[in-house]
Amino acid sequence: MKIKGKEHMDIVVRAIKLDDYPELEKWWKLYEKHGVVIPRKSLLPDNGLGGYVVVKEGRLIASCFLYLTNSAIGYIDYLVADPTYREQDRLELLLDLAARVTAIAIDNGCESIWAMSKNKGVIEYAAKPGGLFGLEPGDYKICRTYDKSIIIKNE
Description:
Mean pLDDT: 78
CATH topology: Aminopeptidase
Number of helices: 4
Number of domains: 1
């Protein structure tokens, strides 16, 4: 699926494929020295295939995983980006990926979606008005990306 406003560019968000996973593992290993925990496949939805990637001009840029539950709650985690990709649109692509995966969760019936990130840019965006909502202090921020009950109360 193309990203809104970037239809003219070769940027897509799509489901993770089996042959994407070795690249994601490589990224996690490069981040491991910064305290990033490499998730075991057994901890990831669909054994590592329950996530999404953003691809720009044929290159994997970032990935995250969507946990769908037996309730109306979804959870997004393990956002990771190619550490060698340093273009100016890096944060924007990460946020586009998070927004697209949030929309996928809503399409799957989620009424509340939660996400965690250690990414400083994502956390700073989460704290801005109109962005995600930073709820916890510390290294990790829990960000509420969508909650139907809040939207209903404001209508």
